[in-house]
Amino acid sequence: TFTAGARALKSVFCFDNRMIFIGSGITNDNTLYPTETTLFQLHLDDTGEPIEVDDEVLGGFPLHHTRSGVERMMVSDTKGNYYVIKNAPQVHIVKQNQSSPNDKTRKMETGDFATAYIDHGKAPREASYEYTVYIQPTNKEISRIARKDDYEVLRRDNEAHVVRDAATGITGYVCYADYAGEGTIRKIDAETIVMERTDADGT
After folding, report:
1. How much is the pTM?
2. What are phi and psi of 93, to 5 degrees?
3. Cβ–Cβ contacts within 10 Å for residue 17, how many?
4. 94, 115 contact by CB (below 8 A)
5. Are the beta carbons of 84 and 21 closer than 8 angstroms?
6. Short-list 118, 63, 119, CA closest to 95
7. Residue 157 and residue 175: Cα distance in Å, rounded?
8. What is the mean pLDDT of residues 19-28?
9. What is the pLDDT of residues 58-117, one digit of tens each?
10. Average pLDDT for residues 141-148, to the nearest whole number?
11. What's the average model confidence in pLDDT over 5-25?
12. Whole-angstrom Cα distance, residue 43 to residue 163?
């Protein structure tokens, strides 16, 4: 949800069971509340449902776990998905009872939820984010992604988000303005989404 005075450029790149989320130009005039990027918010059927943070299992309730100055961290949700967050100022993982209005009736209801989010602080200027969601990866995939990424961000600014996926050979371009770059795509005029693929033989 955006408040007045908030703006950001956001994109999502999907490759097989991987979704790469990129944000740039995150700016907000609101000095009263922090600007946040929600990674997940899930209802808890059991308050003891664990969340993994790197090699640590967090099963307590209520829970408020915070990491600051994050270079790279891996977090699981309660549905078997894994999130790899990179270069975040602060990440919060919370399990708590909360009240919120029903989407349809607007009646206030309560429930137990697990939430993870990136905290950009109050009134950020040109903040950014980068995280990947691996949809129910296998144990072999989990071991691999704990060590390294399957993709490379070639550009993340207010003109374009460009991501190259190693496994598929696909490069995705989300251009917010005129784009000029190196490689196969040299120039793109105006707002455009482009995907290109390099086959095993280099074509």
Report:
1. 0.91
2. -120, 120
3. 13
4. yes
5. no
6. 63
7. 10
8. 97
9. 989 999 999 999 999 999 999 999 999 999 999 999 999 998 887 788 888 899 999 999
10. 93
11. 95
12. 32
- Residue 59, token pair as written in the block: 């099963």
What are 194's two structure tokens? Answer: 């482009």
Give the integer Cα–Cα distance in Å for 36 and 3.
Answer: 12
How far apart, in whole angstroms, are the C-alpha atoms of residue 149 and residue 158? Answer: 23
Element (H, E) at 167: none
Distance CA 9, CA 156 (A): 10
- For the chain, the first-to-last Cα distance in angstroms comes to 42
Band of pLDDT at residue 148, cut at 50, 70 and 90: very high
**HSE of 200, CA atoms in CB hemisphere, 13 A:** 1
The per-type count for the chain, helices as H runs and strands as E runs, is 1, 15
With beta carbons less than 8 A apart as the criterion, state whether 64 and 92 touch: yes
> Which distant-in-sequence residues (6+ apart) come within 8 Å of 96 by Cβ?
61, 62, 63, 64, 112, 113, 115
Q: What is the pLDDT of residues 95-110, one digit of tens each?
A: 999 988 877 888 888 9
CA gap 148, 132 in Å, rounded? 12
Torsion angle defined by CA atoms of residues 110, 112, 118 and 120, in that order, rounded to the nearest 10 degrees: 30
Q: What is the pLDDT of residue 201?
A: 66
Other Cβ atoms closer than 10 A to 86? 14
CA–centroid distance for 59 within its chain: 23
Contacts of 23 (CB under 8 A, 6+ apart): 8, 9, 10, 11, 37, 127, 128, 129, 130
Query: 144 is written with which tokens?
Result: 């691999």
